[in-house]
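#struct-help
A.M.: can someone run this one for me? Single chain, 1466 residues.
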Amino acid sequence: MGTDSTLAGKEVPIIGTDVFRWIELSVPSSSSNIPTAVDGTNATTIAPPTVDDRASCFVLEDPSAYLIWRIHKLQPHALELLELNASKELPKAGLRFIFPYQLCPFAFVCKNEISRNSRFPYLLYVLTVTGVAYLLKIRNVSAYASSALFPAEDLFELNVCDYVSNHVPITAVTATAGCVVVGRSDGSVCCFRLGVIDTSAPGFVHELRDEAGVSRLWGLMSRGKMVGAVQDMEISELHGKRFVFVLHSDGTLRIWDLSSHSRVFNHTVTGATFRRLWVGQFDPDSSTIPLSILYKHGLDEELEMISLHSIRYNFGERNVFSMDPSVQNITLEEGQCLDVKITLDKIWILKDDELVSHMLTTNVEEVEAFSYALQEEVVADQLFQSSEHQADEILQIACSIFSSSKEDVVPFISSIFLRKLLLPGVHHNAALHATLAEYSRHLPESDLQALTADGLKQEVLSLIEHEVGSEKLSILHSWKCFLTRYFHNWCKNNAIYGLLVDSSTDAVGLIRKSSVSIFRSLEDIERIVEDEVGELTGLVDLLDDDLECEILVELLRCVMSFSQQLGKTASSIFYESVLTAPVISSEDIVHCIVKILETGSCISGPNEKELIDHKSLRKLSAEMFLSLQSLYRKASAWSRILNVIQGFLKFLVPQKIIQNFDTEVSSNINSSIIVHTTYQISKVMFESAWDFLLFLSYLVDIGGQVHLSHDDITKIQLEIVPMLQEIIFEWLIINFFAITPSAPATTEDFNSKLSSLHIDCNTGKQLWNEKLGRRDFTLAFILLLNVRSSSTDHGHLLKRFPNMQSFVNRMRDFISWIIWGQSGGSSNFLSRSIDLAFILFKHGQYEAAEQLLMMAEAHLLKEKTSQSIQESDGGWCIRQHLLGCCLLAQVQCGLHTTQKDNKVFDAIRCFFRSSSGNGASEALQSLSEDVGIPYLGFSGCASTAAWKLQYYQWAMQLFERYSISEGACQFALAALEQVDEAMKDENNPVNGSITTTRGRLWANVFIFALDLGRYYDAYCAIVSNPDEESKYICLRRFIIVLYEQGAIKILCSNKLPLIGLVEKVEQELAWKAERSDISAKPNLYKLLYAFQMHQHNWRRAANYMYMYSTRLRTEAASKDYQGSSLMLQERLNALSAAINSLHLVHPAYAWIDPPANGSSLLGEHYPTADNDAEPERWQSCIDVEKLENEFVLTSAEYKLSLVNVKWTFSGKDGALSDLAELLVNNNLYDMAFTILLRFFKGSALKRELERVLSAISLRCCLDKVESTWVEEHGQLVTSSKLEMVVHGSPVTHHTTPQTDGSSCWATLKIYLEKYKEFHGRLPVIVAETLLRADPQIELPLWLVQLFKEGQKERMSGMSGRESNPASLFQLYVSYGRYTEATNLLLECIQSFASVRPADIIRRKRSFAAWFPYTTIERLLYQLEELTRKGHMVEQCDKLKRMLLSSLQNHLKTLKVDSEDAISVSS
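D.P.: on it. Structure tokens below:
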């Protein structure tokens, strides 16, 4: 028999079976069940261990389900159990049982027919290598918690070794419901009714022996003829009876009846080493049971073969089995046989590299083998692993295409590889996790699974960029390494385990390490492409004769040869260019690739590899030229060849199938298979059409060399190429739906957030939202679930996996629905794209709907480059309208700022274009509310202007709903342009007058501009508003928003023309200021001040600042803020600003009105600067002087607050004097003297000065520090008289008062010297105060010098100002300071006597000198009294002698001067 096979089908992975959550259940074990050897040691292995990965599937009839179990050779203690239901969703979790010992490569799972308890729907039988058999009663998956212990009450445990003598090893095991059968190395077979009856009950265990009816323990009696060890066993049910088929190692095949425990068949096959046994389904028509045996031929131990036998049966009075003599041998030339399944008419052989089927036939010479493509081949092709040059070709073509923009090459190439990596069936979570781990990206597998498609792209792209940056590798090399590693991990994590076969439907599937898949039959185009034009299935009806068939065969060979060079890589580039919209068009890509094929070079700078590629391309060109010449000679004319091409292209057009749908399609595993089948076939169709496009483009380029006429070229360009472009576009769209993941459900709007609370919502909606956003839930699922399926497809077929052809048929129906619609009524796909976009939009797939419409728009531009692209039926307008809705909806999905702005501008453009297209009014108003997009909600627009007015207002409200003020503002302005013309129509649907309508729209423009921060535009909208009421409402809102946004200062600039609105603005500001918190920022009173200053209204500016000061004082009084220095400082600033403003006014008008609310300071008695000590009531107006008075008092209050002293002017008599005293007590001398000079005049001022200086003097007496020390230290900064700054703010920094003596004396000196000009007797007052406080105090030298000032002419004696030496002399005498008094007198007399000669004549003038002789007499008297009393006698005598001597000399001098004066006068 030949070894060639025909490709008959392809593997379709069930997407999502790689991401199950496994619930681990630890199976308990009794220690008493641990088998022991004869010598007492543990027998660790008595049954065969798991050395290969094993898996199988049990098909349940009712309910329909597929129970799949897997045992991994690297995890022999664990068994995974998964339940699949073709008519239900893919389960989220499976069960993983952890056993205490390693398992044998066997498990049997079935429906629970023993107890029929709904709590335990399934039974699981396993056997460990220690000989312990387990029967587990399985609950539903939802009943188990993760990492839990399997309930002991749901478990039956049997130690088979207890029933086996001498511990003979177990070599095979099988089971059926209620029975476990084990075979041993000695050829014996025993069955246990585990779970049916008690282990101690009779009949629990039976040995299958030749002696019928005898049931005893093994080894107690002879078993007759000896046979080889049991190699394999399988149980089959036939006419209600169960038979166990036993294959022994010596080739003996026996069949035992389990009900009678008797042997019913025995046959021996020799000459081979037997491995496995499989029993097929019995055929009731031929009364045969197919049976296959895997063996290795004795001549070649490496060559595996399968012998297929037929056992005939006859059930009469006794069961008779006989072996059919014909044997069908199947040679397995390559690969290891993993599993075999036999159905009624086929045997399915699974090897580690392919799946092959053979028909069951008696004619062994005519057996034909059919092969089925595995997913490894597809993944290798998608990841460019089939050829080492494919990835290089992508780079070469991309560099050639983007020759003018090299920076686009790298992202474009990465985009291609990323898209390939994340394709359904290629992307595998465990493989990607392992690959990332190899690059030291240890992301938890659960986190990786939770990532969206964009998140995965970002993760992989960052890894590639890191590799390029750290290793200095090229981007292509990094991608090639990554994809190679990923493919290796994919194959490792998707190793083939076993077959899944449903005999009732002829469905065949594959169980892999971490996924499950189903096989489908091939589409006609796949048979042609994959079988290298071996047959033209489905094409015969399109051709007229055999010659055309020959032409087509040769033509297809040319195209395929052409495609194998650059077609596959070029199709990837073309596909990516359409979806990612690069800087180069698809036509340019086609032209560039054809140029490469024609010239045989890609890029400049050839190296060795490029030279090889160049030779290959040149060889292709030569072969293509010869083939085309031969084809031309065979056809005699190119017109016939072109007709054949047109006929073939009709074969590529998606079929239009008229279907009567009446039932909704549900989301289930079958739907997933249909979707992936759609992707596989659409990919082949797209690539086939693409190959023809490249071929025809190449043919036109070399047309002159192959005798292509001008008419032929015209036909290609105007008829065939547009037809090809339409076909490519349609299959590309189908492919786009099949591989593009759905976007997650948006929850941005309030309704969605409310629904997320699960208030009055069904479970179906929640499940739907959970599916959206999953990588395995593509757009095609959404579309498929909107298809209404034919009722003929229902029944048990939908509950199970259907046969291979059924998937293709249902895929055709689905594709027909996508392209032609439900009834096939769509004339072209462009109109159909609108319906599909509505479906996508309705399910929240806004970006996908946008891509669909953009691709349709781009294709439409190609078709109608020479005519208008706007259809007369308004279809173009609907597309633009829908596109605008898609763009606008995406803005709410968390886009970046730049991307968001672009979407907004594009949406605005789409809505404007939609409103102005042909038939826009009728088309858009005809859209119903249930299409899913925002409903227009109006109709009956007769004129174009009325339509546009309504539409623009609708768009304005739509943008406003999404909080997009930019778009809303533009449509409000556009609506304003239509108001006048629209309102002329009496039948217009707009309510209200022109003024009202324009006022409402201008108010909207104002609001939107304000939201955008465009204050100038907002103000212009206010000015433009014809509705006065609306205008002033907007103006108030304008001021409020400016205030809240901190932009209120714009009113004081020249940016806004306030002509005609100055008073209104001022009123609003004043109204706002009166009702705003005084501490709010910005301060409205200051703003009003600046506003009036900007308008040169000085008095109003001063008025607002005074009102601000008044508010501050009132607020402080009501809130007990008198001690707040900050608030007092703010009051000072306000008063200072008011004073400065009034100084800009003519003095005659420099006054302001008091506040109208009566809270001003006018209600109190503040002093005025007159000569009276007590103030009079202020007049009704407030001038500069009154403001300055208040400023001074507030300054004093502020100064006191800095030292934590609270004071408020009460207006009572003596308040100012008390204030001055308070200031002095707190060392605030400057402020105290300022108060005195400001509010006191004449005698009152002198009296207050005396009080203040006396107080300072008394403070000096408290310290005995030498008073003369201040002459060298402690110089204080002073101010001249009346230099208190009333036009500015006071010094705000706080200086801690000094209390040491030196500072006090220095202060006294400064202020005495400064203010003695106001009152000449101040030194006398100070000296007298000091002496009165302390008669023994030593008066400061500087104070004594003050008495001597003015004595520049020593001939004046002791006379002078009010504070003269005589005054000091009198104080000395009065306070008993006789020594100082004597010294002072002697000093003055001596000074008088010791004048220069030049001054003698002046001294001799009459009345020129004066001495206090009376006081001198008092001094002499006091000295005599002291002497008489005996006090200081010696000192007094001395002073007395000095006085008398000095006076005697002085009197003599006076006598001489008198005589001289008389002589001169005479």
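A.M.: thanks! The chain has 45 helices and 35 strands.
D.P.: also worth noting: The first strand starts at residue 5 and ends at 13.
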